[in-house]
Amino acid sequence: MARIVSLGSALQDIYLIDRDDFGSIEFGNVSMFKNLEIGSKYDIDKLDFFIGGGGTNSAVTFARSGHEAVYLGNLGHDPAGEAVLKTLDDEGIDSSFISFPARGKTGCSIILLDSKTGERTVLTFRGASARFDNLNENDLDLIQPDWLYVTTLRGDMGTLLRFFEKAKSLGAKIMFNPGKLELINNKQVLGLLQDVDVLLVNKREASQLVGGSLLEELLNRLKNYCPTVIITDGAMGGIARSGEKTYRFGIYEDVKIKDTTGAGDAFGSGFLASYASGDSFRTALIFASANSTGVVQRRGAKNGIISRDIELHPMPIQLIK
Q1: Which string of DSSP letters, residue by residue, matches 237-302?
Q2: CA distance 221 to 213
Q3: In the beta sheet, which residues pair with residue 99?
Q4: Has domain 3-8+54-105+131-319 been given CATH number 1.10.10.10?
Q5: What angle do CA 264, 266, 271 make, to 5 degrees?
């Protein structure tokens, strides 16, 4: 098994769940809540509390697959921070490198979830996870990771560069799943990819980076920057290339979606959890899809994360090159 550092956010997710009041109405290509009037009060059906954030979501996948998982990020000294620490401890994740910025509060997301359709709107207070420039890349000297898994750092390109350079100096491999604030700086992201071993983006994000609209076109452009590239395309599956092998893949199962929160984190960390265990590239793609499928069937970003011992069934995946 590998030692994997998850660098990213930690949040408390508060779910407001209702079957009727969160129904949607379409305005062109945009869906909006149709029943919520400003100044009114509404009763909701259910309230749930979970722990989210890309950094902790991925760390749970790694731990459940038997890896030595380390979470590196920011928390506040508050009840939400205590809830995050308890979750990490329960999952066997090393939390000793977490930082607590002065006067920082743990981030929180309010998730308005339509229980009838699984559609949701997320209101996020980033709190201590709004910035990452206080984190010290020299912590990696003590951790000695095999892999560094990085989700969005809210566009902090300087911190990304510091951690990428340190990881490579230690011989660690890097998997990167950039967010929208990184992709705004697409030229800088492309420059960072010289240190990245595995890049995960969706189709829209890939187009932001290199332009284009077809999956194979996007993949062929990105392979010039990174040796292993995975591009997801929602219900259409996606495309991935490692070395000389290119795969088109579909979805693991056609299931009723209960909540999409954390699905992207589950796919990316699921891939690395399998790949870092020595599985083939093809098997890792299947495990990634299975992990994402497990997450969307349950509420909360972590509840459906699968373990290493699950028996995978076949899914649509084809070697095309």
Answers
A1: -EEEEETTEEEEE--S-----S--TTHHHHHHHHHHHHHTTT--HHHHHHHHHHHHHHHHTSSSSS
A2: 11
A3: 74
A4: no
A5: 105
| pLDDT tens, per residue, the chain with 321 residues | 999 999 999 999 999 999 887 767 776 777 766 667 788 888 999 999 999 999 999 999 999 999 999 999 999 999 999 999 999 999 999 999 999 999 899 999 999 988 888 888 899 999 999 999 999 999 999 999 999 999 999 999 999 999 999 999 999 999 999 999 999 999 999 999 999 999 999 999 999 999 999 999 999 999 999 999 999 999 999 999 999 999 999 999 999 999 999 999 999 999 999 999 999 999 999 999 999 999 999 999 999 999 998 999 999 999 997
Q: For residues 68 and 304, give the distance between their C-alpha atoms in angstroms, rounded to a whole number.
A: 20
